[in-house]
Fold:
Amino acid sequence: MERAFVLPGDVVGSAEEYVPGDCTYARGGIIYASTAGVVNIDKNGKSVSVVPKTNAPAKLCQGDIVVGEVTDLKDNLVIVTLAFKKGYEDRPISDEEATIHISNVRNSYVKDLRQMFSMRDILKAKIIDERQLRLFTGDDDLGVIKAYCNKCMTGLVLKEGKLVCPSCSNVETRKLSAGYGTGVV
Ligand SMILES: [Zn+2]
Structure:
């Protein structure tokens, strides 16, 4: 039942098992979905809710964590094409391009932006200006989460603190997220 897609009126559980949560209602001991969405059972297994599935773009706000790809690199600026907002992975993003200024890359001085990022890097960043879509990657968990070798495009792996190409042994540097290579956003 967990993660199943349901339509309004579909059974999502029984009132003996669960407390009806958001977007559900109970009738005659049965819990039904009141909207189309994905069934979600809370961590304690006590309540069942439905998370509405919608194509409305995710609104981007200051403090949100977003994931995107580096699509251009200038002397002082990284251009990032946003893929999704954390927690809203299945929703489109309306404003697609964001930037990271060299002063917002990390908490210490950055001399060369190209030592921090490279084209096609996938990175995780925090929105610090929602109007101009300016991003920050200074926290430990922020930064590059997936990078590719500049010589042969193989995915780089973290080996004893260094980013190494498993194919051609090229060693590169990035402003890495603590979650690099784990696949967890
Ligand atoms: Zn390589």
